[in-house]
Design goal:
Number of domains: 1
Mean pLDDT: 78
CATH superfamily: Lipoprotein localisation LolA/LolB/LppX
Strand content: 35-45%
Oligomer: single chain
Largest sheet: 12 strands, mixed
Distance between the termini: 29 Å
Structural class: mainly beta
Low-confidence stretches: 1-12, 22-37
Order of helices and strands: HHEEEEEEHEEEEEE
Length: 234
């Protein structure tokens, strides 16, 4: 799987969430330049700029999503739902059995099955992957992008943007973004891996400027009796 390791099935889902919500971050924004392997589509850039501007207009975002993991034969290995809360560089991702908290300085990854939380520092000097990039600056000079056109999805009209990584050593070879033409917000994402597997994320509901307390972005040990802490900050 791209950008994460497979462990048990619960960890697989959380790592897949970070593929989808966090895949396309930590890079430099495209400024319309060509790169060594081709030319980006100006129509795609215009649409992506609109998506980025719309997301940045919100003080915070709450997104309910469904994540489906398919193997190379196209068989669904599993499907789960979750919620992302996002406020600037702070975020909270919740999916069955696992949670991730980040207050912009520290991050906590909690696994319910082991009742264990891993704590680490956020290093702004490292090209880490962060959820705010998924809704804003998710296109960059490390990808070629083009607009494939529109298709109907129920009552929605979705524009498909195809991303191809410049770095051919990546585990994935293609990413498709699906953007609601009416709202200029991301509807979903599909990544294709070289081994034939697919990760498909659909945003079922997205709210902007809702009431989100900063307490949501910090792991509260008192709410998890007997939790074991693995502190990697030292």
């Amino acid at each position: 799987m791209p950008l994460y390791l497979r462990f048990d099935i619960n960890q697989l889902y959380m790592k897949s969430v970070f593929l989808t919500f966090l895949l396309l971050s930590g890079f430099i924004l495209v400024r319309g330049q060509n790169n060594s392997i081709g030319k980006n589509d100006p129509d795609a850039k215009k649409l992506l700029d609109q998506v980025s501007a719309k997301a940045k207009s919100y003080k915070n975002i709450q997104a309910d999503f469904t994540l489906e993991i398919q193997n190379a034969a196209g068989k669904t290995e599993g499907k789960k739902t979750g919620t992302l809360y996002l406020k600037g560089t702070q975020y909270h991702v919740s999916i069955t059995g696992q949670e991730i908290f980040c207050d912009g300085k520290n991050s906590w990854s909690y696994d319910k099955s082991t009742n264990e939380v891993t704590i680490s520092k956020v290093d702004p000097g490292v090209k880490t992957i962060s959820p705010e990039k998924f809704f804003t600056d998710f296109y960059d000079k490390d990808f070629l992008y083009k607009l494939n056109g529109a298709r109907k999805q129920g009552r929605k009209t979705l524009e498909e943007v195809e991303l191809t990584p410049v770095d051919k050593t990546r585990a994935f070879y293609k990413v498709y973004l699906y953007i609601d033409k009416a709202t200029h917000m991301l509807y979903g994402l599909k990544s294709l891996e070289k081994n034939g597997a697919k990760d498909i994320l659909t945003i079922n509901k997205l709210l902007g400027n809702s009431t989100i307390s900063d307490d949501l972005f910090v792991f509260n040990k008192a709410k998890y009796p007997g939790v074991e802490e693995v502190d990697l900050r030292n």
